[in-house]
Description:
Layout: E1 3-4, E2 15-20, H1 35-49, E3 59-60, E4 67-69, E5 80-81, E6 84-87, E7 94-98, E8 102-108, E9 113-119, H2 121-125, H3 128-140, E10 147-151, E11 161-162, H4 164-172, E12 179-182, E13 185-188, H5 190-201, E14 208-210, E15 234-240
Parallel strand pairs: 3-5, 4-6, 10-14
Antiparallel strand pairs: 1-2, 2-15, 6-9, 7-15, 8-9, 8-10, 11-13, 12-13
Helix pairs in contact: 3-5
Amino acid sequence: MKIIQSKLLNNFTNLSHGFTTTKMGNLAFHVNDNPQNVDINHESLASEMGYKKNSLIHMKQIHSCDVHIVNNDDNFQSPKSCDALVTNKKNIPLMVMVADCNPILFYDEKEKVIAVAHAGRQGAFKNIVKNTVESMRCKFNSKAENIYVTIGASIGVCCYEVGEEIYDEAVKIGLDYSLEKRGNSHYLNISKILKKQLLACGIKEKNIEISNECTCCKSNKYYSYRANPKTGRFAGVIMLK
């Protein structure tokens, strides 16, 4: 299976969306892959999902909580440095790339607004989901109760061992609920943080869908930096039709 779709977002016929797997190939240009091969993978994905490759907007992800509202200057060749994108434009697919981090897709069914966000440990600690929802609200009048959120596969608490420094940081900012101790090791549950943050934003629990697949456990299906630092990136994509 090259594209995994969200049961939640499948309810909306005006959306094209999905999460890729390793079968679609690496989609990142910054991981020392042959650029021509990456471009071919993008062409294949565009064909599979029904958009033009050069209409795709992706990001130079920097583990921030910065959100960019898509404008007419944005293009495939020059991605913005940020970790979330928001638009209400039709036929403009948005992409988030990951290899253990959480790829998040947002859809406001009332105002017809979409967004993507990249949430690794830093994005979760900085609460990028709150910034994304706030940007949807401020720019497009979105209300949290109308927003649907689906989170693709990411590294699970089963595999995400963290050191004392990250453990201490999590405790300091009130995220101790996301930590598990096994033996002398600490493990972090990013999905648990994101769900709590989404609920705090006012997103309804029934409108939140979170994959239970661990990218590290299933590194044959998804790219995983923890399993192999020399790896590609899979993606979450969403587009208004």
